[in-house]
Amino acid sequence: MYRNFEELKSIKKDIRSTLVVAAAHDMHTLEAVFAAAVELKTHYLLVGNREKIITISDELGVSPDPETIIDGGDDADCARIAVDLIGAGRGDALMKGILETGTLLKAVLKKEAGVRGSGTLSHMALLESPGYHKLVGITDGGMIPGPTLEQKIDIVKNAVVYFKNLGYEKPKVAALCASETVSPKIQETVEAAALQEMCSRGELGDCILEGPISFDLAVSKESASIKGFHSEISGETDILHVPNITVGNVLVKGLIYWAGAKMAGTILGAKVPIVLASRGASAEEKLLSIMISLI
Hints:
By secondary structure, the protein is of the alpha/beta class. The chain folds into 2 domains: 5-116 and 270-294, Rossmann fold, CATH 3.40.50.10950; 122-259, 3-Layer(aba) Sandwich (Isopropylmalate Dehydrogenase), CATH 3.40.718. It contains 11 helices and 11 strands. Strand 10 and strand 11 (274-275) form a beta hairpin. The mean pLDDT is 93.
């Protein structure tokens, strides 16, 4: 268990991977990439407006090798070039710069690019929130609008692998719903119960999953005690699995903007990790996203 990002930083090491950045002409993105080069010994290829990249680099006091800058046109062109570089084996991870997520993912999802995996791509937001005693993952608030049960299975599996790679032996997963009661009128509760049954048979990886379960029961032992809800994960949940993209997106942004949470974002399920933080994220959050994605 990690209580915060500072504790998680203790496992960082010289990763020496090459990071390919799409639309790199952004102050916070370049600040994070250059910091990763120093702290993690990563290499980088910067795809974007060459003049802007050089100007911003000068402002940051960095002089990147000209060969690490690949001139790109509009956002779609930058995304295509960056993904092609990954497909050609010139990079170990892909990073979103100052472009929309959909533009980058459109390039990633093209079969001919050779970057997408065989399963479902999903977004993992890892958050440090003042209101919770440890880091918590929220998935999927950035990829699939209304996932089917089959896609939810992949989302959970992606999340479990992610947490196992961070050193968690048996991640605790909450399949969030508005209520802990299964109702045929609320499909997400039926699917959450199905996920719990699958987990009990060992079909979702080495984890503990409970669902349907409400947010308060997932994160508060006191709430579970008051309601008489018996659970292995209440107050100790590692992963909040949301029923759809709207719930995940609103929950993550609500924690960031109203509760002062910090976030690191990664797209899971591709052949390489995809570093994905909001365009408005700070350099610190982008650096955290790089570090955790590469780990």
